[in-house]
Amino acid sequence: MCEPVCPWEAIVPEEDVPAALQEDIELNATTAKQRSAFEVPGSERIEAIRRPPSSE
Fold first, then answer.
1. HEC per residue, the chain
2. How many CB atoms lie within 10 A of CB 35?
3. pLDDT of 18-49, one tens digit each?
4. pTM, full prediction
5. Phi-psi region of 54 (alpha: psi -120 to 50; beta: other; left: phi over 0)
6. Dihedral in degrees, nearest 10, Cα atoms 11, 13, 18, 21
7. Residue in 46, 10, 45, 44 with CA at minimum distance from that of residue 28
8. Alpha-carbon dihedral sign for residues 47, 54, 19, 2
9. 11: closest CA among 2, 1, 21, 54?
10. Which residues contact 14 (CB under 8 A, 6 or more apart)?
């Protein structure tokens, strides 16, 4: 079964973000403000780094 990119359960108010993910709040804000500074890889790049699925 495929999972959506961001399942609705993952969307929580900032004050409810788990401690292990707190650093991501600032990173997400930075990427939103500086979107042009980030490169989105094309399909060729994605295929080049694709790994086989884990057995886990």
1. CCCCCCCHHHCCCHHHCCHHHHHHHHHHHHHHHCHHHCCCCCHHHHHHHCCCCCCC
2. 9
3. 999 999 999 989 988 998 888 888 888 888 88
4. 0.46
5. beta
6. 70
7. 10
8. positive
9. 21
10. 25
